[in-house]
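Service request form, structural biology core

Requester: graduate student, group of Dr. S.
Request type: structure prediction, single chain
Budget code: on file
Notes: please return the result as structure tokens.

Sequence provided:
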Amino acid sequence: MTSRRRLFRNRHGRARWLALITWLYVMWSLLPVLVAVRISLNSGKSRSTFQAPSFRWYWGDPTSSVWHDDSLHSALWNTLRLAGLCMVIATPLGVAMAIGLQRWRGRLSRGANTLMLVPIVTPEIVFGVALFIVFTQVYTGLPGGLTTQLLGHVTFTMSFVVVIIRGRLTAIGSQFEEAARDLGASRFQALRLVLLPMLGPAIFASLMVVFATSVDDFVISSFLSTGASTETVPIKIYSGARAGSTPALNALATVMLLVTLLAVVFASLVMRRMRAHGDTSASLSGITV
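Core staff response, request fulfilled:
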């Protein structure tokens, strides 16, 4: 082995340049985010240069800061409310649909499985235009704004839930439910007491994916918005950036970033606890047996 090859390999024979490329990519991806966060701490109104650090645009400015600007409050509230409702609706529907598709046998089942991937592979701009036409030309009786935005987000994110849950169902198999049925459990009891607890990590992961997707969505929210009262944070940032607003938008984006990071940390802690509980249960079962 040459000295150059030894430089890029460790003693286990793994190429170190793979880790180098990974860290370079991570730093390159984080750089724009860090720049935006730093600009949110500017003491002046510039969004193109760094100025003295200050919390003016978070709470210091009496009219334009995130704490005092009602329009920024409204955008933040609309985003979190929309994402929360989407989680509550899309996740149970996606779980039920995934279980149904997993158990469906017949010629039409393969076509239904393929159709579930359409919202994921369809360009979001096409999906947004289609939803706008449907809600303005077909379902004209539905109230615009939050209702149509929520229906659009649920339609778009439910496919992600189905894909995640079906992957977990494939890994679990049917032997646990069959064992529960052999021991006298009804079909509903096997579903509630055996299958759903085993789907817990996948269901929680689906909740986090739905939340992150809904919070980050711009196209569908923009097409289905009816004005300033239904603006979300992505819409507010886009319209404000084009109008040349203050770093308060950067501060608003930073707040959303912190909310998302807190959700990720919370998800990580819950997933770790679920794994530990699963390992403990498995150990106790082994001892019992």
